[in-house]
Design brief:
247 residues; alpha/beta; five-stranded mixed beta sheet; two-stranded antiparallel sheet
C-alpha cells in the first residue's frame, strides 16, 4: 500500500480510550506556529479534523508546540472492532474527543493521529498535522512525541490488519526527523509523576514504542504490541525507499 502516492500521497483527503497525560497546565499566549520541518518523505494522505467534524469550539486552549519529534507511541482506543470505516469512524473520533475533554479533563483529543482498520489516517489533536503538537497520550512523555491510536481493541490473538500496520508506519516514518531511525532507541526524561516512571527518571525507549512502554497500562493490547517490530521495520523500509536513487 505504501509508499506510492496512489495510496498515501501528499494531499490531505477531503473525505466526507484509554490514554494518560500530564496534568493540564497553562498555555503560553500569544502562541507561534512553527514552520514545518523539511523532510524528504512526503506526508501520507490523511482525513482532516474538519472532515471528521471535530468540535474545535470544545477544545479548551490553544495548542502547544514542543519541538522536533523524538519518539512515537502506539495506542489502541479500546473500541469494538466491527465498525464500518466510512460510516462509523468520524462518530467514533468525536466520542473519543468528548470523552477526553469532558471526562478526562484534557484540552482536546489526546492522540495526534488515529488509524482505522482500513488504513485510513485521521488528524487528531488540533494544531496542525505537520507541526510538533504536544498531545495527551503518554503520561510523562507527551512533549517531543507523537501519539498514534489504532481504532479498535487488539488483545492477544486479535489480528492486526496489514493496512493499519502500514498506515501507522507511514505516520512514524514521516513525523520522525530524518536523523532519527525508526529502528533506534532514544533516552528521555519523564516530565511528571503518576505514571510508570517518576518525574525526572531517565528512560531508554524504542523510537517507536507502545503506550505501555512509557506508562502503567496494557495499551496498545498484546497483539498490536507484538506487531511493533513489523511497524518499525516497515517505517525504516519507507525511509530506504525514498532515499534510494532512481534507476
Amino acid at each position: 500500500m505504501l509508499p506510492r502516492k496512489s495510496r498515501h500521497g501528499v494531499l490531505v483527503l477531503s473525505l466526507c480510550l484509554l490514554a494518560a497525560c500530564d496534568a493540564p497546565r497553562p498555555r503560553p499566549r500569544p502562541f507561534h506556529i512553527p514552520a514545518p520541518v523539511p523532510h524528504a518523505l512526503p506526508a501520507p494522505a490523511y482525513v482532516s479534523r474538519q472532515a471528521w467534524h471535530a468540535d474545535d469550539t470544545h477544545a479548551r486552549t490553544p495548542p502547544v508546540y514542543t519541538g522536533p519529534v523524538e519518539i512515537v507511541f502506539v495506542h489502541h482506543t479500546n473500541q469494538p472492532n466491527g465498525y464500518d470505516c466510512v460510516r462509523d469512524v468520524p462518530a467514533i473520533l468525536r466520542s473519543i474527543e468528548v470523552h477526553h475533554i469532558d471526562d478526562e479533563g484534557w484540552d482536546d483529543i489526546g492522540y495526534n493521529f488515529a488509524v482505522d482498520h482500513c488504513g485510513t489516517i485521521y488528524e487528531g489533536r488540533a494544531g496542525g498535522a505537520t507541526q510538533p503538537v504536544r498531545g495527551a497520550h503518554t503520561r510523562g512523555f507527551n512533549a517531543h512525541s507523537v501519539g498514534i491510536a489504532a481504532i479498535g481493541t487488539f488483545g492477544a490473538g486479535q489480528p492486526v490488519p496489514r493496512p493499519m500496520i502500514e498506515a501507522i508506519a507511514a505516520i512514524a516514518a514521516w513525523k520522525l526527523p530524518e536523523n532519527v531511525s525508526p529502528l533506534g532507541t532514544v533516552r528521555l526524561v519523564a516530565s511528571s509523576n503518576g505514571g510508570r516512571y517518576a518525574k525526572g527518571a531517565t528512560v531508554d525507549l524504542n523510537v517507536i514504542s507502545g503506550h505501555r512502554d512509557g506508562d502503567s497500562t496494557d495499551c496498545p493490547g498484546q497483539a498490536l504490541y507484538d506487531a511493533l517490530p513489523e511497524i518499525r521495520a516497515y517505517a525504516a523500509q519507507l525511509r530506504q525507499d525514498i532515499d534510494r536513487p532512481p534507476r
